[in-house]
Structure prediction request, 243 residues.
Amino acid sequence: MAGKLPELPEDWSRALAIVAHPDDLEYGAAAAIARWTDQGKWIGYVLASSGEAGIDGMHPDDAGPLRESEERAGAAHVGVTTVEFLGHRDGVIEAGLELRRDLARAIRRHRPDILVLMNYAERWGSAFGPLNMADHRAVGIAALDAARDAGNRWVFPELLADGYEPWSGAQRAAVGAAPEGTHAVDVTDTLDRGIASLAEHRAYLAGLGDEGTDPNAFLRGHAAAAGARLGVTYAVEFELISI
Prediction:
């Protein structure tokens, strides 16, 4: 999508970020999250898996706890203290009823005004871009479905029995790294903290090898391009959708 982007509305106070793995939010969205926590907004992280299959040279039993620790450290850089892991198996996450129920429970518990998601489209970038992995696609679509499930008392009635009352307040989602951004967030003052957040994923980045991401170069380059479209030095793009 060419041309200038409008600013993402910030007329909300609570957001729940739902992604598949540790590091998903750190590839851009974390810099925006730092801006929002600076404004006094509450942001919580819910991760479907612990990313235990993400390091080829490390057994999942060792990688999972390490990646959870890296995620909590990264979240702390941007003012997030609520970080939850749902325990779905990394690499084979399914957008079925079990995941929807878990996410609906989290949404009812935290009662957000907006969701923050990552790209759940088939591809990154254009229709000819690289294929997006299955976990990202599954978690994104399940989160959107769960936002509606959370508001319907007759869907997953077992949640009611556990004391989780319906919540219909999350009627928008800001999707980071979407193929076409519709809005952007000025992160000129918080980009360094977003970079520090990604840099905490040392074991994961090292596992990528020599072709891995340099947090500073990667995030600064993308943020500069998005900033040009917003008219600021650095920005992060999101697709804003209604649920």
User: Anything to note?
Assistant: The CA atoms of residues 46 and 84 lie 5 Å apart. DSSP finds eight helices and seven strands in the chain. The chain has one domain: 14-242.
